[in-house]
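Subject: sequence -> structure tokens, single chain

Hey, anyone have a minute? Need the predicted structure for the following. Not urgent.
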Amino acid sequence: MTQVQEKNTGLRILQGIMKAIQECMIPVIPLIMAGGLIKVLIIILTLCGVLPSGSQTYTILSAIGDAPYYFLPFEVAVSAAKYFKLPALLPVAAVGIMFSPDFLSLFSGGAVSFFGLPVSDVTYSYSVLPIILLVWVMGLLYREVEKRLPESLFNFFGQMLVLLLSSLLAVIVIGPIGNGIAELIRAFVMWIQSVNHVLAEICFAVMFPFLNMCGMQWPFILDAISTVGLNGYEALCIISLLCVNVSQGGACLATAVRAKDKKRKEQCFGMGITAVLSGASEPSTYSNFRYKRPMIAALIGSAAAGLYAGLVTVRAFSFVPPAAASILIFMDVQNAMNLVHAVITGLIALGVSFAAGMILGFDEPEADNAEV
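Reply:
Had a minute. Here:
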């Protein structure tokens, strides 16, 4: 195999992994967003004096908001089962073993083994990668067992064998491997923050549009979701996404103002407003990338906003695509300035990217000027 073939094979494998993560996570994101918005509602009610902190009502609402994060593995298991074409309840049962009180209690007594094989003490709450790996392996086992057993035996023994083998592989091999990958990503994020938090914020703000276009943003988004679940806040990726979403929208709005073609004006205006308000910046990103100079303008806006956010250390307390409509995810009961800094970050992203877009302009082709 030549180096080019090896490179193409490696690229296809990487694309396949990213596609699997994306397809497994897309159905789960709205549920996580719902939990995040409930947590925002709790903060608002607490600040307004309607909901006393520490009350039973507060605890119940908090449990509702935290549930999509804590039970994320079950949600991912159902979504991954659909993607890998498995009976949905089979992966749910395997994930349930990882949350079984009897299983978890084993680790309170020290080292745990299964017939001499070590079983690692892995925290599966808020985890995603170990679950996707588990369901993928379960799918391979399911089809292999189904192929080798007669239908009558498969219906009786098949799922039992798949559940037994995949569950053992999960707690002995897959779980630790998936958790190790997640920890490496988290270690990288923490390392780049420890080197220089301001520089890290700028780098991520500039890097995310290209990660999005390549479909490689998911490992960092998964880490951000897990970090919110574990720590209650996140201070890098979600803030970088705020810079990216608003700046891409701002550059697209500048293109709308400068464009001569009416249809392009309408399209760019719609994409820009959507990105700024809702955080759905992909259409703006592709439009800006096509015309090159608007993308440069957006990157300038992202870098400027990332610089400010890094200097003041903005924190996000829920995972919702950050934009104007979801700005309250930055509300901090103990630090009112955090929300103010988030608003300023968004305004910098919008203002700088729009101004840069107006200055840089773009080349408007005549042959296809009806398309964006």
